[in-house]
Amino acid sequence: MAAKLKRISNSMVDAVERGMKNACKNIEGKAKMDCTPGKSRYYKAPYSDDNDPRRKPPHMRDTIYSEVRIKSRGLLSSSIQGIVGTPKEYAIYVHEGTSRMQARPFILDNIIDEKDTTLDFIAQSIGAEIRKECV
Amino acid sequence: MCVGVLVDVFQAILDKLNDDSTLQNYLGSEFAFRANLVQPSTIPSITVMINTEKSTLRPGSAYTRRRDTDQTIQVDVWVSSADESFPCTGEDADLIADRIDELLLNPASPVTGTLAGSWQKTSASQQYEPETRIWHNAARYSFQYSMTDT
Question: Whole-angstrom Cα distance, residue B67 to residue A69?
């Protein structure tokens, strides 16, 4: 029993990492959808034509990425961060708005909206890990 | 159909900002507005816009008609570096943003109509717009309020 509990506690960080990866992919997908004309929740999807000479392709939607960073793996002090972002310089102006353009927080809105789903992904991953030891 | 509490809550947020003497010292009178899709009508100013909203029916809502709403708003501070007097720098915009934090996140004095202790800051950023020479602080806050369906 003690050995099982130890194995479970050791594998928890990996389980949370897997769950967080899925959650981040989910938010990444929703953010990309919000940057797609016709599918975005915003009045004007933040999408630029690849032929627009002022914008170098790839446009912002195709640069949105997600990753998981593990800062520490202690039993009670694990730090696991899910990151969703884009390297485009103008993304911050689209996300936060400017004096001439309404904000379209295509990442933060989805983080908030998908909070329950994010917790479900992590809970499922932890549950699967525990079940592995219990059968 | 729902009772229009949000309108009251939104107005209460604007009133709380407009009535604060510290912000009045910084920005004059009537400086907080609902954000339009176009640029802020005056600068320096504060604009407030609704981001996301999610309502959950309370157990027994068929009888009580009560629902709880999670709301996220964006509060923007606009300061022009073309001005020569305060507020005209990024630090000045930060100072105004800090005061907004103190007002909205104070659990002892919640915005009228919202649940005490439910206010949280979810993001903050500062950008400089070189073309218009405007400093822009954007902060998002989430809070809860409950309302009665009619």
Answer: 37
Nearest-neighbour CA in chain A from B38: distance (Å): 6
Model's pTM, two decimal places? 0.85
Q: How many residues does chain A have?
A: 135
Residue B129 makes CB contacts below 8 A (sequence gap 6+) with A93, A98, A99, B136
Q: Do A99 and B51 touch (CB under 8 A)?
A: no
| ipTM for this prediction | 0.83
Domain span at A42: 2-134
**Domain spans of chain B?**
5-148
- Separation in Å, CA of A25 to nearest CA in chain B: 21
A72-102 pLDDT per residue, tens: 887 677 889 999 999 988 899 999 999 988 8
Most B CBs within 10 Å, among A112, A114, A116, A117, to test the B interface: A112
CB contact under 8 A, A96 and B142: no
Fold assignment, B5-148: STM4215-like (3.30.2000)
